[in-house]
Structures are given as C-alpha cells and as structure tokens.
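Q: What residues go here?
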C-alpha cells in the first residue's frame, strides 16, 4: 500500500484536520491543550508509517515552512485583537515588562543549568539553547485562555505575543554574536529595530490605502502573500521581521487611531474595516490549519526514548522548576497577590521548536538531547492544563454559590411579599373598627 500517493495524502490530511477540530472541542470541555493531542497523534502516526513503509521521510523542510507561516498567522491573529486605547496603555506596558523580565530571567537560569549539566556546552551555546526554552507559546496560550476573565485573558494575549517577538529578536541577536566580524553590537541591534519599525509603519499605511481600492473579491490571500513576502524579505535583510507583522496588525485593528487628523481623508473606513473583518476570519482559519499540521509533523519527528533518559528528566525538571520560580517572583512584583492561574500558564511550543531547529551548525552541541525540548513542552503544557482545570472548578463553585445566594434572596423576597399580602387581606382589629 502506497501511503504517499495523491489520494491517500488527501485522505490523511482531511482526517487530521477533522481530528484537530474534534480535539479543539475536547480541549474546551477539558482544558487539555489540543496541541498535546496533536503531538500524540503525530507520535501514533510515526508507528503507522513504520508499519506500512520502510522509507525514511525527512519532515524537517515541511516543519520549518509550517512553523514560519504558523508563527506569522498566530502573531497577526493576536495583533488583530489588540485595541490601543489610553486605558490599555498600562496593561500593555506591564505585560511587556513581565514578558521581557521573564524571558531574560528564565534564559539566564536555564543557560546556567545547561552549562552545568550538558558536557562540552559553552556558556554562549547555553544561552542560545536556553532562549527557545524561555519563550512562551502564543500558539498554545491564545486558544486556551478564552474562558478566563477578560482582564486575565487580555494579559495573556499581550504577554505571550511580546514573549514570542522579543524571544525571536533575542535569539537572532545571540546568533549574530557567533560571528564577531558581522556582529554590530547593541547599537546596531537597536538601529535594526528602529529601521524595522519605520519600514513596518510605511508598509502598513501603503497596504491599507492600496487594498481598500482593490475591487476584486479574491484579495485576502493576496494580502497574506504580501505579508509573507515582507516577512521573508525582512529576514533576508536581517530585520526583525515579526515586528512587521505585529505593527501591520496593530495599524489595521486601530485604523482610527493611526489615520487621525489629515490622514483620515485618505481612509475609506467602511472598505478598510471590511478588509480587517475578513482578514481576521482568514487568519484564524489559516492559523488553525497550519498549527494542526505543524504539531502533528513534530510528533512524527520526536524520539520518545529520550524521555526515559535520567539526565534528560533531571535537566528538564530543573528548567521547569526555574520557569515557575522566576515567574512567581515577577508576577508578585508586577501584579500582586492575584496571580492564579496566570502563574502556571507558561507553556512552551511552536517558537521553541522552530528556534531549536534554527540553531546554526557551528553552535550545535552534539551532547544536547532533543528530549529536553519535548519534556519541557509537555511538562509546561500539562501544568497549564492542571491549573486551568482547577480554575474552572473554582469558577464553577463560585457561580454555584452565587446562584444559591440568588435563589435564597428570591425565596426571602417571595416570603416577604406573601407576608405583606396576608397582612393586607387580614380583617381589621377591633380597635381599628372603633
């Protein structure tokens, strides 16, 4: 049986998408991240492949392309939901500070752990390997926090998006340091960010003004193609490309803010808003498809045996413990005592995998076990699942208590009204008759 012929591939892809949709439903009911179910599905398919074919399939090129597109779609999806208002400036800046502090703190401690326990790993290489392990996964967080209170949900969207962007920037800053001849230092890095922001704003204004004039119905995937092109060109020019996507999403989601004053004359708001609304739907659907295949293919590539390695388990547990210890200190400092379930919502995922495979050959350490990656991803996801289930039960209990109190108040109110009615209907007393 040829499992790689065209019709079989169509059947396989369709079944995977249907299962992914079902996993999303299960996830909403149980709070188990659908990502874990997709990885498990990929792992099962790994055995199916070995049963039906002896061919060795290289999934890495597909994994890399899906990871990049998925990353773009997820960041764009998050940016389209962010409203820039005066009252939201403090939450945005606070989320950014928490994301940056958590990223640097987690990377520093993880680098020390890797340097200590992994043979032949220099401190520079440790930082490079630790950075992907320190980035929050917006691919897991954003779909998982929809049931939380609006304030907490908003915090997680901001924090995970900033963590993705700053983590990628930090990773490529460390990569540039591997080649001193090309490394332009912190000044060059800051200039790179500034140049990216300027280009992003110019491109965002140009795209909106041009696309609002296009009358063709088939323009949304053209818009996505333009964004992918800008991202890829930015990478070739060593710019912080993800900023281009984030800024475009913020501009089109907050058009009235960015097209204020005289610029408002150039904006046809109804047409531009229709583009925004339709882009939101397409981005959501595309992110779902790409995320599905990315994590299934990742499951196809993992070596489960490495999870049973004692050193892998020890290093992974130390890294996971450090993640939550640092997060506890940061959240207590910035937020206060109300840090549940936020403390435990810190999963690693798509960015972690993508950046791990992007580590340059000259920086790769043969003694590093990829099982650490898998262990940390699964461990942090399971901890998040436990926290979300516990929070859901707590909220359910509070709602039950509120309902009970409302019922009791209604009963008291009913009793008072009945008593008043009886008093009104009672015959007058003899004194009253006189």
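A:
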């Amino acid at each position: 049986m040829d499992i790689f012929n065209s019709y079989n591939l169509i059947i396989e892809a369709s079944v995977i998408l249907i299962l992914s949709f079902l996993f999303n439903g299960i996830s909403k009911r149980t709070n188990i991240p659908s990502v874990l179910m997709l990885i498990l599905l990929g792992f099962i398919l790994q055995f199916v492949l070995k049963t039906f074919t002896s061919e060795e399939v290289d999934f890495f090129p597909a994994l890399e392309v899906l990871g990049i597109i998925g990353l773009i779609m997820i960041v764009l999806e998050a940016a389209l939901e962010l409203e820039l208002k005066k009252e939201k400036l403090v939450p945005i800046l606070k989320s950014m500070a928490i994301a940056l502090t958590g990223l640097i703190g987690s990377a520093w401690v993880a680098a020390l752990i890797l340097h200590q326990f992994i043979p032949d790993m220099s401190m520079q290489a440790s930082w490079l390997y630790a950075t992907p392990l320190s980035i929050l996964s917006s691919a897991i967080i954003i779909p998982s926090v929809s049931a939380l209170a609006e304030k907490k949900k908003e915090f997680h969207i901001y924090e995970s998006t900033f963590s993705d962007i700053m983590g990628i920037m930090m990773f490529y800053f460390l990569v540039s340091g591997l080649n001193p001849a090309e490394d332009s230092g912190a000044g060059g890095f800051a200039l790179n960010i500034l140049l990216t922001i300027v280009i992003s704003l110019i491109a965002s204004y140009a795209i909106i003004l041009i696309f609002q004039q296009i009358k063709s119905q088939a323009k949304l995937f053209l818009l996505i193609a333009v964004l992918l092109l800008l991202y890829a060109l930015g990478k070739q020019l060593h710019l912080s490309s993800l900023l281009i996507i984030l800024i475009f999403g913020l501009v089109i989601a907050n058009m009235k803010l960015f097209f204020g004053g005289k610029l408002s004359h150039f904006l046809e708001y109804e047409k531009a808003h229709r583009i925004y609304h339709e882009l939101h739907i397409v981005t959501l659907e595309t992110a779902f498809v790409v995320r599905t295949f990315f994590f299934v293919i990742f499951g196809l590539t993992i070596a489960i045996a490495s999870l049973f390695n004692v050193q892998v388990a020890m290093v992974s547990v130390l890294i996971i413990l450090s993640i939550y210890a640092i997060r506890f200190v940061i959240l207590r400092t910035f937020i206060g005592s109300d840090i549940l379930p936020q403390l435990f919502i810190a999963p690693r995922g798509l960015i972690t995998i993508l950046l791990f495979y992007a580590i340059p050959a000259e920086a790769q350490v043969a003694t590093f076990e990829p099982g650490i990656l898998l262990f940390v991803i699964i461990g942090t996801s399971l901890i998040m699942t436990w926290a979300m289930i516990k929070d859901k039960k707590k909220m359910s209990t509070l709602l039950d208590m509120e309902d009970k109190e409302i019922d009791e108040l209604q009963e008291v109110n009913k009793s008072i009204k009945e008593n008043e009615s009886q008093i009104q209907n009672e015959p007058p007393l003899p004194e009253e008759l006189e």
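A: Context that may help when evaluating the design: The radius of gyration is 27 Å. Residues 60-360+369-401 form a domain with the Na+/H+ antiporter like fold fold (CATH 1.20.1530.20).
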